[in-house]
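Lycopene cyclase domain-containing protein: structure tokens wanted.
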Amino acid sequence: MTYAVIVLPFVLATALVTLATLRRPRFGRRMAASAVAAVALMLLTAIFDNVMIAAGLFTYPTEHLSGIRIGLAPIEDFSYPLCAAFLVPAVFTLLPARSRARRASVGGVAS
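Answer:
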């Protein structure tokens, strides 16, 4: 099995959950913030994956990769931070407002 096949369910889930928030308030603003977060997370992934791979902490079997790399890091590694940047805010948006307020007050932050 290739890493691209493993990543596919995460990408599909992210797309579906994000699209489910399309009619929620501030969708465009949320997407812009998610895009900024995605860029930052992918930049960090590029830096740290390259350092860890260069240090020999882990390797990837080439037969399971697309062959596209950013430095030493395979492109497939960048799908997880991309999904996280869009999926986490989308899930939060879909939570009932009462549940979000309760979670915020438990954490000591009033909304």
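Strands lie at 69-70, 73-74. Residues 27-54 form the longest helix (28 residues).

Cheers.
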